[in-house]
Write a structure and sequence with these properties.
Length: 351
C-alpha cells in the first residue's frame, strides 16, 4: 500500500533558532466547512522570520507550516461549503480558527477573539503546495488582479485597519510613521491615500534603502535617527503643532517615546508594531497632551473587500515592496535577505 500523498512545505518544527526547514508533509484533506487551496503566492512576513529565529512573542504550535499572507485557487471543497468551485481565484484571511460564540466574534470583531488562532503559528499555513482554509476566510480575487499582487492583500489590510479603521486621517493632516518595514511603508501609503498633507517616515540609518522606497510609496519626508530629529521635522510641517497621527510600526520602546514626543496635543498614536520589552520611560506627556493611544491588530471581512478592490484598481499599489518572487525552495535565502534588510519583501510561489 502506498502512504498518504505528500507535498513540500516550509515547517517550523522546534522552538529553537533556525528550526525551520523544507519538508515533505501529508497533503491535507478539505474537511467539513473547509476548502483546500492550491497556493499561488505567499508573501514572507517579519513574523515568519521571527519564528525562524525563534524570537517570536506569541505561542507557536509546533510543528507548523509557516505562511499567513497568501492567495491561490480552490482545489477541493469539503462538505457544507457553498458558493465556491474548483479553480476559483481567492485570497484568505488569517484567522484560521475563531470561537463563533465569543462576544467579539458575535460583534463582528473576530480579529480580537481571545481564542483566535492564525495560520502559520497556530494552524498550518500556506508555505506549501496546498493549505486547508475555512470557507469563511475566503475572498474572491477581482478579475485582473494577479496572484503575486494578491499575495500582499494581508499586509495591506493590516495597514488599512491601522490607518483607516483605528485612526482618523483628514486631508491635509500631518502623519508620522515610525518604522519603514513593509507594514510601516504600507501605512505611509494608506495615509497618503487618505489625503494626508505630509507623511514623515522615520527609521534607522540602516533603513536608508527602505526610507527611499517610502518616498516612492507616498512619504513626503524621511528621517534617519541620528541624522535628523523626528520631532523637529514634524514641527516644521503644517501649523507646527505636531503630528495629527503617529503610527508606530516599529514596536521598540524608543519608537513609542518618539511618537509621544512628536504627536500634537489632542492627537493620536496608533501602535501596530509589537515589542515585548517594558517601556523604560514615562508616558506622562501622553497625559499632559491628552493623546489617544490606540492599538491595532489584524483586520476583518469588510477591510479585505475594500483592499482587494483598491489593489485591483491600482489605487493601492504595494508593488514597490516586492523585491523578489521566488520558488518555495528558495525560502531560506529570502528569509535571510529580509532579516539583513537587503530585501524588503519576498513572495514565494510553490511549484
Ligand atoms: Zn504578516
Amino acid at each position: 500500500m502506498s502512504g498518504p500523498a505528500l507535498m513540500p512545505a516550509v515547517v517550523h518544527y522546534a522552538l529553537r533558532a533556525g528550526a525551520v526547514e523544507l519538508r515533505e508533509v501529508p497533503l491535507p484533506a478539505p474537511g467539513p466547512g473547509k476548502e483546500l487551496l492550491r497556493v499561488r503566492g505567499v508573501s514572507v512576513c517579519g513574523s515568519d522570520i521571527h519564528q525562524y529565529h525563534n524570537t517570536q512573542s506569541w505561542p507557536v504550535n509546533i510543528p507548523v507550516v509557516l505562511g499567513h499572507e497568501f492567495c491561490g485557487e480552490v482545489a477541493a471543497i469539503g462538505s457544507g461549503v457553498a458558493g465556491f468551485a474548483p479553480g476559483d481565484r481567492v485570497a484568505s484571511e488569517t484567522a484560521a480558527e475563531i470561537d463563533p460564540d465569543s462576544p467579539q466574534t458575535r460583534a463582528g470583531a473576530y480579529n480580537l477573539d481571545p481564542r483566535r488562532r492564525g495560520f502559520g503559528y497556530g494552524i498550518d499555513g500556506a508555505m506549501a503546495r496546498c493549505v486547508r482554509v475555512p470557507a469563511r476566510c475566503l475572498h474572491r480575487l477581482p478579475d485582473g488582479l494577479p496572484f503575486e499582487l494578491a499575495a500582499l492583500t494581508e499586509p495591506c489590510c493590516v495597514a488599512y485597519q491601522a490607518v483607516v479603521v483605528n485612526s482618523r486621517v483628514r486631508p491635509g493632516d500631518v502623519v508620522a510613521v515610525i518604522g519603514p518595514g513593509p507594514i510601516g511603508l504600507l501605512c505611509a501609503h494608506v495615509a497618503r491615500m487618505c489625503g494626508a498633507g505630509a507623511v514623515v517616515l522615520a527609521g534607522l540609518v540602516q533603513d536608508r534603502p527602505r526610507l527611499q522606497l517610502g518616498l516612492r510609496m507616498g512619504a513626503s519626508h524621511t528621517v534617519e535617527a541620528g541624522e535628523q530629529d523626528l520631532a523637529a521635522v514634524v514641527a516644521s510641517l503644517g501649523d507646527g503643532g505636531g503630528a495629527d497621527l503617529v503610527v508606530d510600526a516599529a514596536g521598540a520602546s524608543a519608537a513609542l517615546q518618539q511618537a509621544i514626543a512628536c504627536v500634537r496635543p489632542g492627537g493620536q498614536v496608533t501602535k501596530v508594531g509589537w515589542g515585548p520589552q517594558p517601556l523604560g520611560f514615562s508616558i506622562d506627556p501622553l497625559v499632559q497632551k491628552a493623546v489617544m493611544l490606540q492599538g491595532s491588530f489584524s483586520h476583518t471581512w469588510p477591510v479585505w473587500e475594500r483592499v482587494l478592490r483598491l489593489l485591483a484598481s491600482g489605487q493601492l499599489d504595494p508593488r514597490p515592496l516586492v523585491s523578489r518572487v521566488a520558488a518555495l525552495a528558495e525560502w531560506r535565502s529570502c528569509f535571510d535577505a529580509m532579516a539583513e534588510g537587503s530585501l524588503t519583501k519576498a513572495v514565494l510561489v510553490p511549484e
